Amino acid sequence: MKRVIPVLVLSVAGLIPVWRYEPSIGTTTTTTTTTEAVSTPTPTATSSSPSSSSSGSSSTPSTSSKKVVQGTAINTDKGTVQVQVTFEGDKISAVSMLQQPNHPQTTAAVPVLIEETLKAQSSKIDTVSGATITSDAYVQSLQAAIDAKGA
Amino acid sequence: MGFPVSLRVDDEGIGEETADALFAWLREVDARFSPFRPDSEVCRYDRGELQLRDLSADLTEVLDLCEQYRVATGGAFDVRLPGRPLDPCAVVKGWSVQRAAELLTAAGARRFILNAGGDVVVAGGPWRVGIRHPEHADQLCTVLELTDGAVATSARYERGDHIVDGRTGTPATGLLSISVVAASLTEADATATAAFAMGPEGVDWAAARPGCEVFAVDAERRVRRTQGFPVATAVAA
Q1: Average pLDDT, chain B
Q2: Which of A119, A129, A146 is opposite residue B118, by nearest beta carbon?
Q3: B235 touching A (Cβ < 8 Å)
Q4: Mutual orientation of helices B185-198 and B200-207 as an angle, nearest 10°?
Q5: What distance in Å separates the CA atoms of residue B8 and residue A138, rounded to the nearest whole number?
Q6: CA distances from A70 to A37, A73, A75, A94 (A)
Q7: How many CB pairs under 8 A join A and B?
Q8: Scanning A79, A93, B29, B111, which has its CA 20 to 30 A from the CA of B167?
Q9: In this structure, are residues A98 and A83 in contact, taking their beta carbons and an 8 Å threshold?
């Protein structure tokens, strides 16, 4: 019986990170794509330059300086990613996605289906896929002809 | 079950013993998993002579796959239909033929075609795989080019209305045929059968499955296929 106790303690201890765990999925999905974009100033139009040549050490850099930087658009195999970061002083005050891929993990992929008309054709082939063929049907099938040719 | 199996291996040094081992495996699968053999593991489990914990790892794997597809299709694909014996054939076939292909690979085969009753696994292509026309047995409705991978087709033309929509208990009739290309036949065959059971909405369902490409013909003879379905370019006659 004594052995049971440490096991129980361990399993309870193991549960704590699970309780504390908050999936980060919510945050990624809520970043809605903003195609509005680009209205923001370019990074070069940046912080107010300390023009006043006077007061030396005491002057702190102006806290009102807001700087918006757009990252370069990066093509990944999941799609294009581009972020926009807003700095206030030295601190990042906001990050938003200018472009993000339509990855199945964030949005359900909607398959694009092509519609065609049904055609009948014969062609040079190596094998045939068809619905579960029975031995009787096989005798007259295209696959039987291919097998006979190869044998 | 009983279906013809065609095997073509182009590698040097792959002998008859490899083919013998492959066919022995498929016979073993039939003996163990056939719902038509009263002494099979499937039948004994279905009659309650075996408990879940007594089952082989293989059958446990197969039944897990069946359950995954049942859940994924909202019950349209179901190997336990009311009033019928447990019938996991739809998964067993693709799973066992995929295993057979892996026997070939393990034996050193790099270029082969394994066709089991119309379900196909290929390696070392490109190979040209025809899809049987749903209405004309001697014609094709498309040709695809496959280098490594699998394609399976579900249809009504040969065995009639044998696939049942588990949600309604009635035969699925919304599609004439559906072919699914995937990396493994386990995935291709189960997805094709499950999509067929779902009917027209199964085309979209299968198309959304990762790694699956779809070519379907509905009851109105319209073709719907995914963009990525590897249609072969025409060969000069």
Answers
A1: 93
A2: A129
A3: yes
A4: 150
A5: 17
A6: 9, 9, 15, 12
A7: 159
A8: B29
A9: yes
Sheet bearing B127-132, strands edge to edge: A127-129, B127-132, B140-146
Per the CATH hierarchy, to which homologous superfamily does domain B5-225 belong? ApbE-like domains (3.10.520.10)
Q: What is the ipTM of this complex?
A: 0.92
Under an 8 A CB cutoff, do B227 and A114 touch? yes
**How many alpha carbons lie under 13 Å from residue B119 in its C-beta half-sphere?**
31
H/E element, B233 = none
Check CB contact under 8 Å for B93 and A110.
no
Q: Please tell me the total number of residues recorded for chain A in this structure.
A: 151
pLDDT tens track for B130-146: 999 999 988 999 999 99
Cα–Cα distance for residue pair A46/B141, rounded to 1 Å: 63
What six digits make up the tokens of B32?
């163990």
Least confident among A54-68, A74-88, B185-199: A54-68
Residue B86 has pLDDT above 80, yes or no: yes
Q: Is B229 left (phi over 0), alpha (psi -120 to 50) or beta?
A: beta
% of residues, chain A, pLDDT over 90 = 10
State the DSSP string of B162-196. Answer: --EETTTTEE--SEEEEEEEESSHHHHHHHHHHHH
pLDDT of residue A35: 36
- Residues in chain B within 8 Å Cβ distance of A134: 2-3, 117, 158-159
Given the structure tokens 């559906």, which residue do they identify?
Answer: B178
Closest CA to B224 of A114, A129, A111: A114
**How far apart, in Å, are the Cα atoms of A100 and each of A81, B69, B123?**
5, 31, 36
One-character DSSP codes across B120-166: EEEESS-EEEEEE-SS-TT-EEEEEEESSEEEEEEESTTT-S--EET
